[in-house]
């Protein structure tokens, strides 16, 4: 037996049998204004299914004042349809109910049809309640917009915690292995220098070490940053200090070798303290400042420093015929100066100022 779905104003009920739909038609809850489908996909006007109107004599006429003009539903409670219908339609219902055939048709419908229809109507109402989720989503969006500042602060806190776990709690296994590798190269180079390795031994060792350090330098160069001083210092040692050390030790220069040792000790301390950041002063070797010469204390106010003439004073006049440049601090004449009693007209008596 065929089953049909009926649709009116977007609401779908069913499936119903032909007898059930004819029962709805007799009670005024179905008309040709409805749409009918046999598979719930393709919908057609109810008038295209004459078998549904067989007992009623075909599709109902298009009555301008009919009950279905307002889009009624088979689940509407219309027990008082007689009061809502126009007088002519009420009379037709009265005449139809008075006929024996109409009575037999009405009694042929099971008594529990109304209960089944009401139950299905309740199920449909529950399905339609699912549309309330749109209101819930709208309310959620409004709440987010009104609390956007609070949500931004919470998001920053979450990102800060994640960053702390990502950077501060990072594993130092790889850094420790790189540190051990660089310490091994440093010890190997110092030992070769102390044993007096010749040039034919030093050059192959230098080329081998630089070749082995190339992958380490490349990896550290990709991962080092200003916020990770451990990798940064390891990069500087492997890329700059060890190659300079290999060039300076043959000429007995120890600057690069000492710097390598100092930087590796700093890295070792940071790894032991489980930190990747240290102050800038602790990452560089202290610079030696040469001592300054002692400065004399300034003289008291109003006094002239020793050996200087007071401001505005004139130098003392020289005695005629004397040569100050020729006398020393003891008053004796220096070689090449005139002495008294020599008969030289340019000579003078010491201490008199007279010739």
Automatic annotation (TrEMBL):
Coiled coil, from the record: none
Ranges for region Disordered: 41-131, 286-355
Membrane spanning residue stretches: 150-167
Compositionally biased spans, kind Basic residues: 90-107
Metal-binding among keywords: no
Domain GYF: 4-52
Pfam families from the UniProt entry: GYF_2
Keywords on record: Membrane, Transmembrane, Transmembrane helix
InterPro entries in the cross-refs: GYF_2
Ranges annotated as biased composition (Pro residues): 288-302
Listed Acidic residues bias regions: 75-85, 110-131
Name this protein carries in UniProt: GYF domain-containing protein
Lineage start: Bacteria, Pseudomonadati, Planctomycetota, Planctomycetia, Planctomycetales
């Amino acid at each position: 037996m065929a089953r049909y779905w009926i649709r009116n104003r977007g609401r779908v009920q069913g499936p119903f049998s032909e007898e059930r739909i004819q029962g709805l038609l007799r009670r005024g809850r179905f008309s040709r204004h409805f749409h009918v489908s046999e598979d719930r996909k393709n919908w057609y006007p109810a008038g295209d299914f004459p078998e549904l109107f067989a007992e009623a004599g075909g599709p109902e006429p298009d009555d301008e004042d009919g009950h279905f003009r307002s889009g009624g539903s088979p689940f509407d409670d219309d027990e008082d349809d007689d009061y809502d219908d126009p007088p002519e339609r009420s009379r037709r219902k009265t005449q139809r109910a008075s006929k024996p055939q109409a009575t037999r048709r009405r009694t042929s419908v099971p008594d529990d049809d109304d209960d089944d229809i009401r139950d299905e109507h309740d199920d449909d109402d529950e399905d339609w309640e699912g549309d309330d989720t749109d209101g819930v989503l709208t309310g959620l969006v409004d709440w987010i917009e009104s609390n956007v500042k609070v949500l931004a602060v919470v998001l920053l806190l979450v990102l800060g915690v994640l960053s702390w776990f990502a950077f501060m709690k990072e594993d130092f296994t790889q850094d420790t292995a790189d540190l051990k590798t660089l310490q091994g190269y440093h010890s190997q180079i110092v030992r070769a220098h102390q044993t007096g390795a010749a040039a034919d031994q030093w050059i192959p060792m230098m080329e081998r070490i630089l070749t082995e350090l190339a992958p380490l330098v490349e990896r550290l160069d990709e991962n080092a940053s200003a916020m990770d001083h451990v990798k940064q210092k390891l990069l500087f040692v492997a890329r700059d200090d060890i190659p300079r050390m290999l060039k300076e030790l043959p000429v007995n220069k120890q600057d690069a070798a000492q710097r390598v040792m100092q930087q590796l000790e700093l890295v070792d301390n940071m790894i032991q303290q489980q930190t990747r950041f240290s102050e800038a002063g602790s990452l560089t070797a202290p610079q030696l400042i040469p001592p300054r010469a002692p400065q004399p204390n300034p003289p008291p106010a109003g006094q002239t420093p020793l050996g200087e003439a007071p401001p505005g004073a004139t130098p003392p006049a020289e005695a005629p015929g004397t040569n100050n440049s020729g006398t020393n601090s003891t008053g004796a004449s220096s070689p090449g100066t005139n002495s008294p009693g020599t008969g030289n007209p340019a000579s003078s008596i010491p201490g008199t100022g007279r010739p």
